[in-house]
Amino acid sequence: GGIGLGLAVANSIVLAHGGELRLDNRDEGGLRVSVRLPRHAA
Does a structural domain hold residue 23? Predict the structure, then answer.
């Protein structure tokens, strides 16, 4: 508990940049959080 609001905010930011936030339960226990953002030319 306690990470729900932070993840919601992070997800909003990632989505605003055209990305994806993914959460996966690990068999060993714990949670894997992955963030994917599109690559833009500088």
Answer: yes
3-state secondary structure the chain: CCCHHHHHHHHHHHHHCCCEEEEEECCCCCEEEEEECCCCCC
Q: Residue 13: inside a domain, yes or no?
A: yes
Over range 10-19, report the average pLDDT. 96
Q: How many domains does the chain have?
A: 1
Q: How many CB atoms lie within 10 A of CB 14?
A: 16
Residue 42 lies in a domain: no
pTM of the shown model: 0.72
**Quick one: tokens of 32?**
């894997």
